[in-house]
Amino acid sequence: MKLLRGLAGHPLHPPLTDVTIGAYTFATAMALLSRVGVSEHNTATAWWLGLIVALVVTVPTATAGFADWLTIPPETPLWRTATLHLSAMLTATVVFAIAAGAGHADYVDGTVGGGSLVLTLVGFVLLTIGGWLGGAIVFTYGMRVLKLVDEPTSRAISPLPLPEKEEAEV
Ligand code: HEM
After folding, report:
1. Ligand 1 centroid, distance to 162 Cα (angstroms)
2. b vs e for 105-140, b when ≥16 Cβ sit within 10 Å of the residue's Cβ?
3. 44-76 pLDDT, tens per residue?
4. Does the predicted model carry a pTM greater than 0.70?
5. Given the CA of residue 144, which atom of ligand 1 is nearest to it?
């Protein structure tokens, strides 16, 4: 479980979220471009493949987030915010999965149908809300933030754990 959380000062969930959010954002942009007729067939293909890539990378992303979530004392404000984040992200994932499943015919035809576009946009709004809530976990509550302002650069960027600082973690 510790491996899934990453190292102190270098948690695993945040970099994975960049890849995941990037892939969903790409897919959403491709859906919009396809609908307005920009290289319609190619962008429809890119939309669907983007969704599949995003859904695949969601698995390790959500797993790393879950490993962090398990360490939060239940029923605290941080836990409630993190649980809202979890719910928003899992709902977004389900909506994107439905868009990909139901939109397979659109992928084959090379057009993004109205239903596929709506599902993709709804998923993206939920993803954005989830990202906002994730930001609160880190930047409001300071979860996984060490804030060792005097830490020498060589130690701060080191991939080695900072064991003596572990207690500073939330
Ligand atoms: C699509 C899946 C998910 C995405 C895109 C995502 C995105 C994010 C983002 C953007 C942050 C703020 C950190 C940063 O700015 O990089 C965050 C933090 C966090 N998320 Fe998620 N999240 C996902 C799934 C989950 C799940 C399923 C859980 C819990 C079961 C979870 C738990 C957490 C926790 C505990 C934090 C704060 C500490 C940390 O960085 O691990 N996340 N998430």
Report:
1. 22
2. ebbeeeebbeebbebbebbbebbebbbebbebbeee
3. 999 999 999 999 999 999 999 999 999 999 999
4. yes
5. 38
